[in-house]
């Protein structure tokens, strides 16, 4: 078990109680002011009041965003405790993106959160046969134990699934994806799938019993290309590279349908050995919102590994503008090298 370094933002009696329980019998200490965090196992613990993050949290975000490589080699988990019913997930996404940009990796499902009522833990507490408060403590303890023993895996056969729902003729996002692929093959095998090929149905919200029934045969109620092509390709891959144009500060409908329908696959397959990478292109602004949406859905929720600096964000509108942007070749080289370092 590796030593954990604790970094706190804000305080609440409930968070202190959860931390005391979760850290018991683990090697840990509070991070010292100005101490190097490179290569360390970090626990971010934040308490939000009923208005959301306080000054300590905002100061931590600014420090992380200002650090280009201050968390190189580090990995982390998060405990976010809220006094109200909202804000915990938004705070977690912002913190993960900031720390990831400074070089920090995150194992799959690195977040335990408690809203003011703890109703966010209702389903889990029923499944575990515990009270909400007990569930909070036990899931926090399990997360920190997992972090203490975490080591980023190396895939036996490096293979990337490049997934998109764009048009080759006009898409800046696809142009960047193709440029990345050209930089990484043949060292890393690529498989490209388009969700524009045929209808992609969104999740219908099946009950757990119905979803499990289909999941046992690696299927889903709707079937189609998600089941026939995407599921098998994802199981063959060691990493998922999502190409994400910014649609109204969100991923496109077909990409969202893919994310939602991963629930069936996730029920009987651990996605925690698969890395998540993304290319985000915005015509105006908001690339960070799409990046947060991707990491929130696929790392915090579905369990993909988040490698350091997982996302390449560009601003481009007219077709061809992304590849013509000043310095884009250097940014593509750097991003390709990061993928190579993670997978090779």
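Sequence proposed for the structure above (344 residues):
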């Amino acid at each position: 078990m590796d030593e954990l370094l604790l970094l706190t933002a804000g305080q609440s009696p409930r968070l202190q109680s959860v931390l005391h329980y979760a850290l018991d019998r683990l090697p840990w200490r509070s991070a010292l002011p100005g101490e190097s965090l490179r290569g360390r196992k970090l626990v971010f613990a934040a308490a939000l009041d009923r208005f959301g993050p306080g000054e300590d949290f905002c100061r931590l975000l600014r420090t992380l965003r200002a650090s280009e490589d201050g968390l190189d080699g580090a990995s982390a988990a998060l405990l976010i405790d809220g006094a109200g019913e909202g804000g915990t997930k938004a705070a977690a996404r912002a913190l993960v993106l900031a720390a990831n940009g400074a070089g920090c990796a995150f194992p799959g499902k690195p977040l335990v959160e408690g809203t003011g009522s703890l109703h966010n833990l209702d389903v889990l507490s029923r499944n575990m046969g515990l009270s909400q408060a007990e569930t909070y403590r036990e899931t926090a303890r399990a997360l920190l134990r997992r972090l203490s023993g975490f080591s980023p895996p190396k895939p036996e056969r490096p293979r990337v699934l490049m997934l998109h729902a764009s048009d080759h003729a006009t898409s800046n996002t696809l142009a960047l994806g193709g440029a990345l692929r050209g930089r990484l093959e043949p060292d890393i095998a690529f498989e490209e799938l388009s969700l524009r090929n045929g209808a992609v149905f969104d999740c219908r919200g099946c009950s757990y019993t119905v979803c499990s029934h289909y999941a046992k045969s690696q299927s889903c109620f709707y079937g189609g290309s998600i089941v026939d092509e995407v599921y098998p390709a994802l199981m063959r891959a060691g990493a998922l590279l999502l190409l994400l144009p910014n649609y109204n500060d969100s991923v496109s409908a077909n990409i969202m349908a893919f994310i939602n329908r991963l629930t069936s696959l996730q029920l009987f397959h651990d996605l925690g050995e698969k890395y998540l990478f993304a290319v985000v292109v915005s015509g105006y602004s908001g690339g960070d919102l799409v990046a947060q949406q991707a990491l929130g859905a696929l790392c915090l929720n579905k369990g993909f590994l988040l490698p350091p600096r997982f996302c390449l964000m560009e601003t481009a509108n007219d077709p061809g503008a992304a590849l013509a942007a000043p310095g884009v070749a250097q940014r593509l080289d750097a991003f390709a090298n990061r993928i190579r370092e993670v997978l090779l």
